[in-house]
Amino acid sequence: MAVKATEQRDKVRLFTSHGLNFDDKGGSQVVGECPFCGSEKFYVSKAKGQYHCKVCGEKGNGYTFLNRLHEHCMESTSRDQYEELGKARALSPVILKREELAFDKATERWLIPVTNGSTAISNLLTYDSSLKKGATRSTATCARHLYRANKLESEGPIYICEGEWDALALLTLMDKADVYGINVVAVPGAETFKKEWVEHFENRDVVLLYDNDSSGQDGKKRVVELISDKVKSLQSLHWPSSFPEKYDLRDFVSEKIKNAKTCWKLLQKMIVEEKSQSKPKIRRTSFNSVMKDFRSVLHMTESMDNSLLITMASIISTRMKGDPLWLYIVGPAGCGKSTLLQSFQNSQNCVFRSKLTATSFVSGMKMEDGSDPSLLSQLHEQSLLIKDFTAIKSMPIVVQEHLYGILRDAYDGNVLVEYGNGVKRHYPEVHFSVIAGITDIVHGDSRAALGERFLKVEMIPTHEEYDQEAQIRASISNIINQVEAEKHLEDSVDAFVYHLNERFGNEKMPAVPSWVIDRTVSLCQIVGLLRSTVLRERSDDLSYRPRPEIGTRIANQLIKLGTACAFVMGKKKIDHSIYKIMEDVAFSTAYGWHTDIVKYMITKPRGTTVEDISVELQISLSSVQRRLSDLRDLKIVYAKRLRGQHGRGRPSNIWAVNDSMRSHWQKAKVGKRG
After folding, report:
1. pLDDT per position as a tens digit, 106-118
2. Higher model confidence: residue 592 or residue 617?
3. What pTM, to 2 d.p., does this model score?
4. Domains of the chain by range and CATH?
5. Is residue 334 within 8 Å of 481, Cβ to Cβ?
């Protein structure tokens, strides 16, 4: 059977891609100069790609040629040439020689040998060092393979780099930092990962080191989908936002190689656990489908529905710009908040912890391998879910304050902690969301601590009729199948979070109508006033004149929350149902007697008395009086003498909301849907 002309050209292209030129006189062979002896008697079969030099006797197929060419060039590559390439690429000449890079004098290009897993070369990559942006090219007609797959040991973690040069940079760093026992391989590029490579990583600890660009992150995602259910553990390099676009591992190493051990430690800090992004076991593409799963296990109320929605929104909001969303999910023991939070423990971009301590959050422990055991090192662009934040409130005040100090810095995006043993932990540009379960004890904390950074979400608002019996019965019915029920919720949440992450970036974020902005501006001024603190001396005198919080932070938080909630619900814009959730969260965040009193007084435009407030809210007269004094000092309410009062005794006062607060209330249209 005759061989087609295109197939003939392909057979010869393997040789021409390495600088050989041939004369084609129309026969079955082409002839050119032999790269080994220089004679003009180097023949290549057009049909089979077999070569034969009639002078030096070299012969074989295309792969024989690649192996022989590499061997020939290795013999003539000098130490100075390795030094020159090492300087140009910020790589160790020792590593370049050990990895058998060879310089081809005929083409003035470097050769990088690649095998298909055996010892024989199956592809020779070429690199022209004279070009500033010289690309590494594959030999024509040769397949791309996993670089250094032939050097994988049976033990030790495997680091997968994006490109051969990144692998060489990592090997250089390990050599200079005296790091051993790590296997290094490289994919040909971000878009290439063949299914037959998966077997190399089965039951192994794998670390992905992809570039800081969209193609690198997309490539990483594809690899995770392919290997996450096959490997023993999976981690990846998370580039902080301070690094520029298209920054890669070789850039990082070349900038910091002067202090190799420090460079290695910094690299380890940026490596975090990679949650499985393989396709979930089940499919969930709407929030309502997830709600159906939860209702099959729990007795769900409107507030519990909203708590789940808000948690979903907070998780996806981590991918949005701006300050992170930090939430308290507030409710009594047994209300279902732990079940809600635990259902996210296996979801993408979620880190679940039962409790939190300062020493686990930022650890001063000095590790032998230079790694950072701190929880914070794993949290960039993740969501931290804490099942029991209440435990922190039982810690000694000094311990609480230490943790709160770190959390404040983390919220602001820059944490620096130095320890007496010389350990220094620095996390610049850190960004993550927090969803923490806590009991009503949070409402009794008058200290500023973290108040303005956390929004509060009430699982069971005091005004809501809560059917405890239905909740208890639902819990009892799941005792036998509790494990299966909880696993079903985890699978449902995992599937929907996966779906949300697939949508994010491919859809426009929901719009924020002007009416939402107008009402939010007034709403946040109300909240800023209501959650302001009044400090008094023992004599009951003011410690200082109180000034209300400016509502900028909570305004940004609420708009971000509303946008994320609308995205989760698949809405094109924030509508009245989403704004109602924003309003509920705002007033939950300002939870307390101040809010309850003002809400009641707003309904009394002509004013009311201490006695009326006491009866309505079922709190003591003295408690009402103290809160009214605080509200007066905050210029939220005022007192006036009751007219027409006769008889003996202390005259009563009429208390009313001042015009400014009433104006904010009207502009915010509190409690109104339209």
Report:
1. 999 999 999 987 7
2. 617
3. 0.62
4. 5-60 (3.90.580.10), 68-127 (no CATH), 149-273 (3.40.1360.10), 287-315+322-501 (3.40.50.300), 527-668 (1.10.10.10)
5. no
